[in-house]
Structures are given as structure tokens and as C-alpha cells.
Write a structure and sequence with these properties.
By secondary structure, the chain is mainly α. It has 21 helices and no strands. The two termini are 23 Å apart.
Length: 519
């Protein structure tokens, strides 16, 4: 096999191992997290679920100060790693460390300055005992993570993300078990948080030490500095990604704030259970594309871009299949699952659930473009797009939450997504990365939407006949979803080259897991 063929094979193997290990590990964490959530809900009041969601959103806003540094530095590492340029890698990591130290200091300072205003954000949560201490624990966990986690990026950039994933999974499982024990024995929310902080700190410390063992040059003193031109490019990319992060924070971390202010903290607690399930599923699926990112970056750094188009279309096909299946399954399975797990008081109405599932689908359809765009370092060109989406999202959500309540918040997000990224993302990608017309992509997109809409309608009709107890309904609907959705998709797409490539990739994932067992 040629050298180029060997490199391509290695990229596939690493992508398969990374994606396979990440999806399996994340699935384990979801199961453990679900059990923990059930214990949490049964042990503590709804208000604590609201506290959990509210403070997570506040610190999500503070995470804006990270400015997308991790993505920029990952891209800066791809080329020196491909060229085995150790002095340059050392220079990038040294700069990375300094930047994250500044971020940690900024998050800590701004987070502390928000203490006097907690009552305003908390609303009817302000009566909860030790609210300030709880917030400080959240803040401390966020600050300490920046001090250690930067080294994990070097492991990931070497296409060995599975190592980081295994560490996170092992520590997460131990942490969740400890949290369940503490909730059952003490019923203390503070003890629950302390277990999370200690687990996160130890995990990041172990990953940092593992990176030092794998790449000993991290411990060496280096006087090598990046060229001025590269520093300027990094600063420019960070500035561009800061706008992306600002948009993402407004879109993803204001939902609970809006719900708390306009519909009450009880709605935050109800939504938080849906968010737990939906976000957990999204994390598993995101790992599929995340496992490909370093290999795509390596491909771009090696200037083999003639292979990008077929790889992209294969990734997009997988994305529409996986996220179409996921959105329909969530719509049919979440009601009996939530009622069985947390009780009927935690159910959302069907129209709100439908909007949430459409949002999951639209976000998933963007994954392929976003993965390629960022892995290829195209941060600057669409820097204002995220701001436009964020402004529209905030305006629509505030307008609609007043009229439609919980559903209005997510209707605003869907509308802003349809108006900006759904068409801007592929247009920019085809114009600047592939240098081709996006028209064939649009045709594929419409054909995929048609098949997914048909599968959704048929599945909903058949699932409506499921009757009996909640567990029976859940299991019957699950079987219907798996068989009917995949059957419709396969019947509609079996002739496509992308379908054959997806089967080949699935086989490669299985081989990747087998290879992982041997290492």
C-alpha cells in the first residue's frame, strides 16, 4: 500500500476507534447519569433541579471567556503534528497554557463579582439554604478545570481521543456512584456537588499526567516561539471564535434563564429532565463526528483536499440518518419514559416536545458541515453569522415565551436557526472549502427531509396504537421506531453510494472496537 494509502487507513482506524469508544463510553455515562437523576429527583426537591440548571447556564455564559481557544489551538497543532515539528508543538502548548491561565483568572473574578446579584437571577430560588455556597462550588469546579484540561487537546490532536474518553468515563462512573451513595445516606446537595468537584479535579489531573507520559517534551523547557505571522493568525482565529462562542452561549445557555424569569422555576425543573435525556443522547451522537475531527484536520493539513467532497457527503448522509432516527425516537419515547422515571407532574405537552425534537434534528443536520468547517480552520469567514443567529434567537424567544410559555423559548431557537445557519453554513462550506456549487447538496437535503417526514408520520400513526402500562408502551414504541424508521430509510436510500459507504464505516467501527480490545 502507498504511503498515502497508509495515512488514509490510519485516519480511518483512529476515527473508528475514537468514535466507537466515545459512543460506547458516553452511553455508559448516560445510563449511570439517568440512575443518578432518578435518585436526585426522588431525594431532593424540584427547586434543586432548578438550581442545577440555572447555575449551569450562568457558568455557561461565563465560559464565553474561553473564546473558542481549544478549537483554535487544536487547529494550530494539526500541521506541526503531521510534520513531527516538536519545537513548534511546544510553543503552541506553552501559549495554550498561558491563555487558559488567563481564562481561569477571568472566570473566577467575574464569577465572584456576580455573587451580589444571585437573588435577581435565582428568582424564587433565593430562599434555598446555602445558595451562595452552592454557587461558589459550581464556580470553583469551572475555574479549576481550565488549569489542567489544556493538555488533553494534545492527545486529541494526535487522533487518540479515545484515551481521554476512557479517563473521563472511568472517573464519571465512580463519581456518579459516590453521588448516589451520598444522596441516599445524607440527602445533602452540597455533598453531591463536592463529589463532582473532586472527581473532575482528579480526572483532569490524571489526563494531564498521561499527556506528560505520552509526550515527554511537554516537561522540557523550550525557548522556541511561534512566528509572528502564526501568532497573528491565532489571535485572529480566537477573535473570530469569540463571536461564535458569544452566539452559542446566547443560544444554548439562556433557555433556563428565560424560563426562570418568565414561566417560573418549576418549569426549569420540568424541562431539566427532558434536557438531561436529550442532551445525553446528543452527546453520544456528537462523539461520532468529534471522533472524525482530528482526522479531517490531519487530512486538511496534509493538503489532500481532493478527497474532502466524498468524505463530506458520506458524513452528511450518516448525520441525517442518525439524527432523523433520533428525533423521531425522542418524540415517541420521551413521554412514557419521563412519566415512568419522574412521574406525570414532569411531562411537557406534545407541541413543546415536537419543537424540541425538531430542534434536535436541525442541530444534527449541521454537524457534518460544522465538523469539517472547524477542523479545516475556517473560523474567520463566518464570524458574524453566530451573532446574527444569537440576536434573532433572543428576540424571538422573548417575544414568543410571553405568548406561548415554555414552547415559545424553543420556537425562537428553531426560527433563528432556519433563518441563518441552515442555509449559511452549507453555502459558506461549498464556496470556500470545496469551491463548488451547493445546489447538489440542497437537492440531497430536500430528498432526505422528504424521507424523514414520511418516516416520522408513519411511525407516529403506528405508535399511537400502542396501549397498556407505561413500560409496555415504551417497549412497544421502541420496537416500532427501530424497525419502521430504519426500514423506511433503508428502502429509500439503499441505492445510494452513501448508504454503501455507511455500511462500510459501520464495519470499520466494529473493527476499531476489536482493535481497541487488543491494545
Amino acid at each position: 500500500m502507498t504511503e498515502k494509502g497508509n495515512r488514509q487507513k490510519n485516519r480511518l482506524e483512529y476515527s473508528a476507534i475514537n468514535a466507537g469508544v466515545a459512543m460506547a463510553s458516553q452511553s455508559l455515562r448516560i445510563v449511570a447519569g439517568y440512575i443518578s437523576r432518578v435518585v436526585f429527583t426522588r431525594t431532593l426537591s424540584t427547586s434543586y433541579a432548578g438550581v442545577n440548571g440555572l447555575f449551569a447556564d450562568i457558568l455557561g455564559v461565563l465560559s464565553l471567556s474561553e473564546l473558542g481557544i481549544a478549537s483554535v489551538m487544536s487547529y494550530a497543532l494539526y500541521r506541526p503534528i503531521a510534520q513531527n515539528d516538536i519545537p513548534r508543538i511546544q510553543a503552541v502548548m506553552k501559549l495554550y497554557k498561558r491563555l487558559y491561565m488567563c481564562v481561569a483568572a477571568f472566570v473566577g473574578a467575574v464569577g465572584l463579582s456576580m455573587l451580589p446579584f444571585l437573588d435577581y437571577f435565582a428568582g424564587d430560588l433565593s430562599a434555598i439554604e446555602h445558595l451562595e455556597l452552592i454557587y461558589l462550588l459550581y464556580l470553583g469546579n469551572s475555574v479549576t478545570s481550565y488549569l489542567l484540561m489544556y493538555r488533553s487537546t494534545l492527545i486529541t490532536a494526535h487522533q487518540r481521543e479515545y484515551i481521554v474518553t476512557l479517563y473521563y468515563t472511568a472517573f464519571s462512573l465512580v463519581q456518579i456512584i459516590l453521588q448516589i451513595i451520598l444522596l441516599l445516606t445524607t440527602g445533602s446537595y452540597i455533598a453531591y456537588l463536592l463529589a463532582a468537584i473532586i472527581g473532575s479535579l482528579l480526572c483532569n489531573l490524571c489526563i494531564s499526567r498521561q499527556a506528560g507520559r505520552m509526550y515527554p517534551y511537554l516537561r522540557e523547557k523550550s525557548s522556541h516561539a511561534l512566528p509572528a505571522a502564526e501568532k497573528r493568525e491565532i489571535r485572529r482565529n480566537i477573535g473570530a471564535l469569540a463571536l461564535h462562542r458569544l452566539g452559542a452561549v446566547v443560544i444554548n445557555n439562556t433557555d433556563n434563564l428565560l424560563l426562570s424569569r418568565f414561566t417560573g422555576i418549576a418549569s426549569v425543573g420540568i424541562y431539566s429532565n427532558y434536557y438531561l435525556v436529550i442532551h445525553s443522547v446528543q452527546q453520544v451522537l456528537a462523539r461520532l463526528f468529534q471522533g472524525m475531527a482530528a482526522s479531517i484536520g490531519n487530512l486538511g493539513a496534509s493538503e489532500e483536499r481532493e478527497t474532502l467532497e466524498p468524505v463530506f457527503y458520506n458524513a452528511f448522509f450518516i448525520g441525517q440518518w442518525v439524527y432523523g432516527l433520533t428525533a423521531i425516537c425522542l418524540y415517541e419515547l420521551l413521554p412514557p419514559f419521563i412519566e415512568l422515571s419522574f412521574g406525570p407532574a414532569y411531562l411537557l405537552d406534545r407541541s413543546t416536545l415536537l419543537i424540541l425534537c425538531i430542534l434536535v434534528f436541525l442541530q444534527g443536520m449541521r454537524k457534518a458541515v460544522a465538523t469539517f468547517w472547524y477542523a479545516l480552520g475556517m473560523f474567520w469567514l463566518d464570524r458574524y453569522k453566530a451573532l446574527a443567529e444569537a440576536v434573532l434567537n433572543l428576540i424571538f424567544s422573548i417575544m414568543l415565551v410571553i405568548r406561548y410559555g415554555i414552547a415559545g423559548v424553543f420556537m425562537g431557537t428553531v426560527l433563528s436557526m432556519l433563518l441563518v445557519p441552515v442555509w449559511v453554513d452549507p453555502y459558506m462550506f461549498f464556496r470556500h472549502c470545496l469551491k463548488k456549487s451547493p445546489v447538489p447538496f440542497v437537492r440531497k437535503y430536500i430528498s432526505y427531509l422528504t424521507v424523514i417526514g414520511l418516516a416520522w408520520w408513519l411511525t407516529d400513526v403506528v405508535c399511537s396504537f400502542a396501549a397498556g402500562g407505561l413500560l409496555r408502551v415504551l417497549l412497544v414504541r421502541m420496537a416500532i421506531c427501530v424497525l419502521m424508521i430504519n426500514g423506511v430509510f433503508a428502502a429509500a436510500h439503499f441505492w445510494r453510494q452513501e448508504f454503501k459507504s455507511m455500511l462500510w464505516l459501520a464495519a470499520s467501527l466494529l473493527k476499531g472496537r476489536a482493535a481497541m480490545k487488543k491494545t
